[in-house]
Design a protein that fits this description.
Blueprint lengths: L1 E3 L2 E6 L2 H16 L10 H11 L9 E9 H7 L5 E5 L17 E3 L9 H26 L4 H4 L8 E9 H11 L6 H17 L20 E8 L1
Parallel strand pairs: 1-5, 2-7
Antiparallel strand pairs: 2-3, 3-6, 4-6
Length: about 230
């Protein structure tokens, strides 16, 4: 059994160009294309954010690959204005060489602090994961198919899900998933990803708040992959 931390892969993007594309589309409404300058997209975006004309943000999208546990992925796919491609436990047989003949699970960060209570919880979780792996491979050894054996796989099982949202849906996603009320492992992914959006697409995400009390040492890593999306 392999235990890993969650992380997110994002593309190299030209955020300013995405916002210029939105401006170009949006100015069609006002027939004010003549007012476009190299920097006019910033006040234009701020104006439509303030006016609530957020349908403009649907003209551009960003794709991310999220590596998380199955439980978190179930929350991600609740967002319907989206395209998803997810690692399938029907077709992936973790007894295969390419999977190292083991299952991979996501470490629950909230069991990591070395308190007396957490040591017991961490041992209980690791035991449960090991038992799930044993049960999975026992089923395969007894002739079950991968899609049948998956019935014993845990919510902590690592999954990869490629997520494409338009920029309006990303705003909605972060409003819900980076909030204090969100599941801790969802915040672990959503907050650092939101910060990447804030850095690359300012000012479009400037007004989206997040749980600032979340321990930054538990943030999932955001990895920028080469090449535009």
């Amino acid at each position: 059994m392999r235990i890993i931390n969650p992380y997110v892969e994002v593309p190299e993007i030209d955020g300013a160009q995405l916002l210029r594309n939105i401006e170009k589309a949006g100015r069609t409404c006002y027939k004010s294309e003549a007012r476009i300058t190299p920097e006019s997209h910033i006040p234009f975006i701020e104006m439509i954010m303030k006016s609530g004309h957020h349908s403009m943000f649907e003209h551009e999208k960003v794709t991310a690959r999220i590596i998380c546990d199955r439980g978190v992925s179930h929350e991600i796919v609740r967002h319907r204005l989206a395209a998803y491609s997810q690692e399938s436990t029907r077709y992936c047989n973790y007894a295969g060489e390419k999977f190292g003949k083991e299952i991979t699970v996501i470490r629950p960060f909230f069991f990591e602090a070395n308190t007396e209570e957490n040591i017991g919880r961490r041992i209980a979780w690791e035991t449960a994961m090991e038992n799930a792996e044993l049960g999975y491979f026992d089923l395969l050894d007894n002739g079950a198919s991968a899609q049948e054996a998956r019935s014993v796989l845990p919510n902590s099982l690592k999954t990869e899900i490629v997520v494409t949202y338009n920029l309006r849906e990303w705003r909605h996603f972060f409003t819900l998933r980076a909030a204090k009320a969100a599941h801790p492992q969802m915040q672990q992914i959503a907050i650092p990803l939101l910060l990447w959006f804030k850095d690359n697409l300012a000012p479009l995400f400037d007004d989206v708040d997040y749980n600032r009390d979340f321990d930054t040492t538990n943030y999932a890593k955001v990895v920028v992959m080469g090449g535009d999306q």
